[in-house]
Amino acid sequence: MAGILRMDYAALDECVSSHLEAADMAGEIDQERRDARLPHGSLGTLSQSDEIQEAFDQAYNDAGQSLRDIAKALRSTFRTRITDLCAQMDELGAEMGRTAEFLDDAAMEGELAETLVEDIIRELIEWAIIMLVVSAATSVITVGLSTAAGAAVAAAKAAHAASKIARPFGVSA
After folding, report:
1. Measured over all CA atoms, what is the biggest interatomic distance in the chain, rounded to whole angstroms?
2. How far is 59 from 42, CA to CA, in rounded Å?
3. Which of 84, 126, 132, 162 has minimal Cβ neighbours within 10 Å of its Cβ?
4. Which residues contact 130 (CB under 8 A, 6 or more apart)?
């Protein structure tokens, strides 16, 4: 994404540079107009009004053409840059859409993992209870108190392990 943003700044920088060039050219034209002076001795010979009008028309047309050229260059530059900028924004939007889809998939996988862990904890608890009942039943028949005590210890360890696993998920064992 950083590359796309750098490209946007580069496009804007180029537009600004083109604008500044055009402003400089317009400034030069204006400066030439302000600096225009009659050569020394030209007051002694006056030109015909038709010649003056022709020279004025030519200068006016040349200045107009220069301004049209500047405007055309600016329109072309800005149009190209804006088109590029819009295309980059479209690409960024598409990339954000793909990222959203990826995050949605990851959330579904997380929910699946949470359900799986809950199921495993329930199975462990059921297994511990079954082992305790079987051991107790066996110990009553054989009158082996040590077997019952061992089963009780195993069941307690299994319950302790299940509660450790369940605690971070907010599941009560």
Report:
1. 143
2. 19
3. 126
4. none
Interhelix angle 145-166/49-142, nearest 10 degrees: 170
pLDDT of residue 45: 63
d(CA 54, CA 16): 37
Does residue 47 sit in helix, strand or coil?
coil
C-alpha angle 28/31/37, rounded to 5°? 135
Task: Please say whether the dihedral angle defined by the alpha carbons of residues 68, 72, 75 and 77, taken in this order, is positive or negative.
Answer: negative
H helix intervals, 36-166: 49-142, 145-166
Q: Which residue has tokens 């804007």? A: 12
Q: What is the pLDDT of residue 1?
A: 45
The span from the CA of 118 to the CA of 128, in Å, is 16
Could you give the CA distance from residue 160 to residue 96 in angstroms, rounded to a whole number? 44
* Single-letter amino acid code for the residue at 50: D
Task: Give 21-51 pLDDT, tens digit per residue.
Answer: 888 888 888 788 777 776 666 666 666 777 8
